[in-house]
Amino acid sequence: MIAVKELTKRYARTTAVDRISFSVEKGQIVGFLGPNGAGKTTTMRVLTCFLPPSAGTATVAGFDVLEQPREVKKRIGYLPEAPPLYPEMETVEYLRFVGKLKGLSGADLDKRVDYVLGRCSIADVKSRLLGKLSKGYRQRVGLAQAIIHNPDVLILDEPTAGLDPKQINETRDLIKSLAGDHTIILSTHILTEVEQTCEQVIIINKGKLVATDSVRNLQARTRGVESVRVEVAARDSALNFEAVQQKLEQVQGVAQVVCKDPRDQRLIFEVQSQKGQLVRGDLARAVVESGWDFNELGAAGMSLEEIFLELTGNETAGVSKDAAKNPKEAVTEVKEPVNESKE
Questions:
Q1: Which H or E run contains 191?
Q2: Are 197 and 186 in contact (CB under 8 A)?
Q3: 185 pLDDT tier (thresholds 50, 70, 90)
Q4: Quick one: 224-342 is in which CATH superfamily?
Q5: What pTM was estimated for this model as a whole?
Q6: Which site in 31, 138, 206, 254 is 20 to 30 Å from 54, CA atoms measured?
Q7: What's the rounded Cα separation, in Å, for the pair 82 and 171?
């Protein structure tokens, strides 16, 4: 659906995007991440035909962004960080206006307006002025205008910025429900949003591609070791924390054992193996042979934040606090050359 090959964008003596290549399959949700100056926004502008590439190629739904920009634009829905709304217009009036701009008319226009009102849960505010809507409803209207012409590709820039936790969850659920019908590129500062929403992650740094893979595969590739979550419970009496930890540490191939949730009748450990060692089976046998109940054994990989910082470097990542969620979730927005204005 999206194919980028050796894409390069230069500004005078600055190379904002340096020969990056990646592909996105139809129906996928992909998280697009990068620290300050990485070239993320420039790449998105090239894909939306707002900027021409200096070298390389990019195609959307089989159409080249440089040679066939009109065809590409017909197949893209775009939601910028600030939704492009006219505060003096009513919701349904605005959607009909956008639909006409995108080539809809007559019964097709009526059908699509009714569809997006229901799909984005904004039918109850269809007669209200956009300027009077809450932030959450404005974001929903922004999504509605992006999908009103049923595009193949959606490009969403910070779709949950400024929303409260309830609105964030509702917007995430809506975005996930759009997958399959649309291929989605999601740019966000909130890393847990990518973990919860996206199937694939693309990370760029200083204009270069540093990773493109699923979150699970990135965890394995980055750490290079097995990290296992083990839950142990007592059968008749309280567990001895030190005895359990010592037993797990004695398993061949184990590098480190950390207790994550100590309780009288249940202990949860995160066990990290030595590089190249698989320890799950031996851990299970050690627990059972010691007479303890073995409740759970599962992967405990690196968080996306840890992966991001390791791949891009702590000093460049620009992690900031996000008050609505976990304090470590946010990544500072990419800033592009000053001679450009936000689309």
A1: helix 191-197
A2: yes
A3: very high
A4: MTH889-like domain (3.30.70.1340)
A5: 0.67
A6: 31
A7: 15
Q: Is the pLDDT of residue 317 over 50?
A: no
DSSP string, 222-245: HH-S-EEEEEEE-SSS---HHHHH
Q: Which residue has the tokens 């009513």?
A: 90
**Contacts of the segment 261-266: beta carbons below 8 A, 24+ positions apart:** 264/234, 264/238, 264/239, 265/233, 265/234, 265/238, 265/239, 266/231, 266/232, 266/233, 266/234, 266/239, 266/295
Chain position carrying tokens 């017909």: 74
Contact 301/219 with Cβ under 8 angstroms? yes
Q: H-helix or E-strand containing 143? A: helix 135-147
Which two structure tokens, joined as six digits, stand for 235?
């059968």
Which tokens in the block code for residue 196? 């919860």
- Please name which of 174, 183, 203, 180 lies closest in space to residue 191, comparing C-alpha atoms: 203
Domain made up of 2-219: CATH architecture? 3-Layer(aba) Sandwich (3.40)
The predicted-structure confidence for 89-138, as pLDDT tens digits, reads as follows: 999 999 999 999 999 999 999 999 999 999 998 999 999 999 999 988 99
Residue extents of the structural domains in the chain: 2-219, 224-342
Using the 8-state DSSP alphabet, how is residue 72 labeled? Answer: H
- Which has the closest alpha carbon to 8: 336, 18, 45? 18
For residue 171, is pLDDT > 70? yes
* Amino acid 29: pLDDT: 92
Residue that the structure tokens 């949700």 belong to: 29
Look at residue 152 and tell me whether its pLDDT is greater than 90. yes
Q: Give the integer Cα–Cα distance in Å for 270 and 260.
A: 7
What is the spatial distance between Cα 2 and Cα 137, in angstroms, rounded to a whole number?
30
- Domains 2-219 and 224-342 belong to one CATH topology: no
Picking from 233, 234, 256, 229, the residue whose alpha carbon sits closest to that of residue 245 is 256
SS3 content of the chain, % helix, strand, coil (to 5): 35, 30, 35
